[in-house]
Design brief:
The chain has ten helices and 22 strands. The chain is an alpha/beta fold. A hairpin with a 4-residue loop joins strand 17 and strand 18. Helix 1 runs parallel beside helix 7, helix 2 packs antiparallel against helix 10 and helix 7 packs across helix 8.
Length: 472
């Protein structure tokens, strides 16, 4: 009979600096550490920038933020649980107001002092533990910084965001003008005196085209297909509040009611040079914009279909029209890259995560902030954060609920479509209907006995709230 190896002969388990490492201090990272603190879980939070806020800080190097940016979802449905946005905020807050809100949230829950700023992560790699503690996983994660230092953790939650790595399609032909991506756009001053072509029909593309309408010599927007445009206000209320009143209905029925209403509100888009949508409402990411139609109706912007080719400064479109442009601005979206740990997240378009936040294959690694949905994202970040905190706490305590969730992450494939058939484009791979997602996660958490609501901070709320209101 072989003797058991002595403790001295076993490979030493790596020293675990804290239970959890959270990478990023934008909205996703802040929601995660708030949830961890409420569960009494020790953590390390790393942020490469010098301040809280992620992409909402227009001074953060590499951010896609621009001066005219406002929140796409309204403030009443966009705050974190236990800490709503100030009532003094407008329906759709400006980017600086969102930044003030995030910083007030961090201060109110005592999160700011726990962040290690100026700490850029280079890589996340697994470290195998031959003799883990009873009930613990045999894997740890080494987080290595750009300066070469590293720490080891049981869990790593990547909250680096999904709008840092631009997708720039090639323009066929030989265009000789300037090409930029919306990632580099800050101010409409860029367009002064130029003939500008904005490519892309997302929310940023439409916003930036409206900026060009005010300062460019000529402003054109190129859309390869037709889209459903949702005005920011309906009957004087934010459209997501009006739409939310019908969210108890099955999505196909809600769509059957809303599509005719949108047609009445916006009319035939072909009058304005736009194409009719080639899909049903909700099957692509919604474009929430009231200004584009205004500028199209006044001739400040001209709509064109997709680009066929370019020669020197002349761009030819698929309808046979052509004209010259000094600048093409590509508002063509982003790749969901996770450079610090790409091979553990799957491809660059849609990270392969259970409930869009838990690695199916790799125990102990998670991602918050990569979900693509048809509604405001903050309340989904919040739910994911509390779900992960409950799971990690349950793993620590050896609960049956955590063991059940661990089995589910490897086998459960829930339908998050809400009865919709999403577009087959790369962006919509892994796309979820917000109502369906919330219902499923809430039901699952209730079954496991995990609350998904954050507490209201008491002593600090007033002080932090006043700082947010100062930005209103």
């Amino acid at each position: 009979m072989n003797a058991s190896p002595s403790a001295a002969s076993r490979p030493a388990a790596p020293h675990v600096d804290t239970t959890v490492c959270v990478i990023g201090a934008g909205p996703a990272g802040l929601s995660v550490v708030r949830a961890l603190r409420e569960r009494g879980i020790d953590y390390t939070q790393l942020e490469r920038h010098t301040r809280v806020g992620g992409l909402w800080d227009i001074d953060n190097p590499g951010t896609p933020m621009y001066e005219s940016a406002h929140f796409i979802s309204s403030r009443t449905v966009s705050g974190f649980s236990g800490f709503p946005m100030p009532e003094s905020y407008p329906d759709y807050p400006r980017h600086d107001q969102i930044l003030a809100y995030l910083r007030s949230f961090a201060d109110a829950y005592g999160l700011t002092d726990g962040i290690r700023f100026g700490a850029e992560v280079a890589s996340v790699e697994p470290v195998e533990v031959t003799a883990p503690a009873p009930g613990a996983s045999g894997r740890r994660w080494r987080v290595t910084m750009e300066d070469g230092t590293s720490t080891v953790h049981e869990h790593v939650i990547v909250c680096t965001g999904s709008q840092w790595h631009p997708f720039v399609p090639e323009v066929p032909g030989s265009y000789a003008g300037e090409i930029r991506h919306s990632l580099d756009y800050r101010s409409p001053d860029l367009f002064t005196g130029k003939r500008v072509l904005v490519v892309g029909g997302g929310n940023s593309g439409c916003d930036i085209a409206c900026d060009a309408a005010r300062t460019a010599e000529r402003a054109v927007i190129s859309l390869r297909r037709g889209y459903w445009f949702i005005p920011k206000h309906v009957f004087g209320l934010p459209s997501d509040i009006v739409g939310g009143k019908g969210s108890f209905l099955p999505k196909p029925l809600e769509r059957a009611l809303l599509q005719p209403l949108l047609r009445l509100l916006t009319g035939d888009p072909r009058r304005l040079g736009l194409q009719r949508p080639d899909h049903k409402l909700f099957e692509t990411h919604p474009v929430v914009n009231s200004q584009l139609f205004h500028h199209l109706q006044h001739g400040d912007i001209v709509a064109r279909p997709g680009i066929r080719r370019a020669d020197e400064l002349t761009v030819e479109f698929t309808d046979g029209t052509s004209e010259e442009f000094d600048l093409i601005l590509m508002a063509t979206g982003y790749r969901h890259r996770v450079p610090v740990a790409q091979r553990f997240f799957g491809d660059e378009q849609h990270p392969d995560l259970y409930l869009n936040c838990v690695s199916r294959e790799h125990s102990g690694i998670y991602g918050v902030g990569f979900i693509e949905t048809n509604s405001g994202a903050y309340h989904l970040f919040d739910q994911q954060a509390h779900l992960l905190a409950a799971f990690i706490a349950g793993r620590r305590d050896g609960t049956a609920a955590a063991a059940a969730f661990d089995r589910l992450r490897q086998s459960d494939v829930p339908d998050m479509s809400g009865g919709l058939r999403f577009d087959a484009s790369p962006r919509h791979r892994g796309y979820v209907d917000s109502d369906a997602y919330v219902k499923y996660v809430t039901r699952l958490a209730r079954r496991l006995g995990w609350p998904l609501e954050g507490r209201t901070p008491d002593a600090a709320t007033g002080r932090a709230r006043s700082r947010a209101e100062a930005a209103a």
